[in-house]
Amino acid sequence: MASGFPGRELGLGGNGEGNLLKRTLLDMERQQMQHAILLRSVRQRTQAVPSVSMFDPVVGGLSCNSSAAAAPERMGSSLSSVDCSEPGFTARTGLPPPVSATATVNLPAPESRSSGSMRDQLRELERRLLLDDEEEAEASAPSGSAVTHAEWGEAIQRLISPPPPLLPTAVSRLSPSPTDSSSSTVSFASCSPPSSLPSPPPSRQMLLDTATALGEGNLEAVRANLAVLKRAADPRGDPEHRLMAVMIAALLSRLNHPQVGSSHPITDLRSPEHFMATQMLYDLSPCFKLGFVAASSAILEATKEESKIHIVDFEVGQGGQYDALLLALAKRRCPPAVRITAVADPSSPFTNINIGDMRAVGDRIKNLAERAGVRLRFRVVSLRAAELDAASLGCEPGEEALIANLPFVLSRVPDESVSPDNPRDELLRRVRALRPRLVALAEQEINTNTAAFPARLAEACGHYGALLESLEAAARGSPDRGWAEAGLARRAVNAVAREGAERVERCEVFGKWRARMSMAGFQPVPLGPAVVELVKARVASTCSDPGFTVKEEAGGLALGLGWMGRVLTVASAWR
Fold first, then answer.
1. 267-574 adopts what CATH topology?
2. Structure pTM?
3. Which region holds residue 572: left if phi is over 0, alpha if psi is between -120 and 50, else beta?
4. DSSP-based three-state secondary structure for 574
5. N or C, where is the chain less crowded by C-beta within 10 Å?
6. What angle do CA 325, 330, 335 make, to 5 degrees?
7. Digit-coded pLDDT (tens) for 418-429
């Protein structure tokens, strides 16, 4: 008859036979004696484990998910959270589990069932256990703990050290869906700063803490931190001071207009001043400039045997990309006939110059082509993404090599997170339907699309901080640097602080672009050794500072252009 007690399953049977109710008196006596010895041993060993307060009164008062604002003066660095899931630490106190005697002592099997011999063995075992405890206590007397000082030092250091900044290029990740930014691919992870780098400066850590507090609605902490941060900001200081000024502007913009859909104006991004500042940024920043160089080199490589070339350009700007491109075409034995169709999307907030200005840009490009000896036609069309087709663009299939030029364009086109119509994927599908010979793509390597506000600010600190440092190195003394950085600041504030349709620049990391391009039906095209070597030669000849780097993805599928090992822009080609 079942007893209802899980004696065998729990190992409670006296001799491994029968159930709990059939144990003999001798078995029960032996069981009680063993329990008494083990409890005595465990009690003596656990008394040797110290509390955290013996080492640091501040850490001793911390609990799981404690805030950095609890004791900033005593800790000496900001702490956003305590990870209670670290191996070897309990969830309640963060202490390592006590050492148990049952983990180190093996009970001998009884050789006889006689009560006398069993009692003698148990007494001998008890004596040995007590002697072991005394010896261990004497050995640990200098430290007062069964755990070494080195182990505790490492544990305390992990607790009081702030977490590393969230850098999009520091993690390799792949997502089959282009809508999940948290799992996007960063193919240039090897180019990113390693996790062993020092913790961020206190001012940057306070920025991240302030962004978190703002997300939690803790406005008192936000205002207190901003008062401190403003003392570290200087638009005319070094790059770190200028970064502080930009990020404080983003925090203030977010603080003053926290609701999605608020009427915060974006007219400053449509102004002629911002348009000119963007062109200056492209001219002064080697990372942006080399993105255009890589795109032009890929176009030249793809059309080297063609007599007619048609370039559909979705952001012609001031036409600076065509200066070197037309000169390179003119050096061919039989220069091809070139046609450029500049597409202006009337729905884009970045279409901030009128058709007359774009025609003036076209006239400049045509004059340059005429001087170089290249036949060129220039045309401007005003079309939305859903209106693009071969007829509206004047394409001549089979008669010309069609090129789609998209450097730093797609990040300005809304996607599914903004509109159910998904203009970004619509544009790519329309371009794919044109069957172009090549699609030239370049984008910034940062996720300001679907990441939450604190994560966007964390990534922006690393990305824009490196951009400002690179501009300091490349354009020191240039009168246009102030203009370029002002435009960069406006873009950063909008990308970090705004939500919904008000965030008009939504950058993603290269892995996300790769997933999106693949889903639209494109295949990556290796840039080839000629393109890679040309870009590296341009870096060596124009960038005297060794901080500028060129990183090639395996197979030459993309080039990462960056500063001090951090990739800032990525160029690629597609078909």
1. Rossmann fold (3.40.50)
2. 0.66
3. beta
4. strand
5. N
6. 110
7. 999 999 999 999
